[in-house]
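Notebook B, p. 112. Complex prediction, attempt 2.
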Amino acid sequence: DGGITQSPKYLFRKEGQNVTLSCEQNLNHDAMYWYRQDPGQGLRLIYYSQIVNDFQKGDIAEGYSVSREKKESFPLTVTSAQKNPTAFYLCASSRYRERLFFGEGSRLTVL
Amino acid sequence: QQPVQSPQAVILREGEDAVINCSSSKALYSVHWYRQKHGEAPVFLMILLKGGEQKGHEKISASFNEKKQQSSLYLTASQLSYSGTYFCGTEMGGATNKLIFGTGTLLAVQP
């Protein structure tokens, strides 16, 4: 089945640690996105990529980093510079200017 | 540039109608609508492109007024399954594939 796979579903991090969230898609989509969602809040764009080896910052990129070395993969690293990383993280992909397909999300908790 | 949604929350009885509005301060290329249940990924409802297009999906329809940079989502004869948070996502003109979401409208349908 085609779709987007995010892993892990739940992740715990100690303060000062970097963690990487995985996002893989087999839909052959060019565009991929990372959104952050806090309780009762909307989806805020962290980074997005329209093509391999290229990505742009969203509205809240500070403390995060991404790479896009392969079309199907768009991992997100939450660095120690991100002071309040506890949130629900959603990865999505799309064809150019079409609807988004979302993964099931990764819930990150800082201990 | 985050779109503004109204109302923030609405409570309905089964069978009642509701309208959710989405307004942007920027010229828009398209508007997306998604519904999210608690703890789950957003589910795509519809996408509207500039041109004053109106689309429908069962008892849910939407309009897009590009001159006013506004979109409205119409829920007719609401069902319990319509409960959730509704988000509009807006994409501006230009070559970007960047989708920015509003803060959401919480809809609760009661028996």
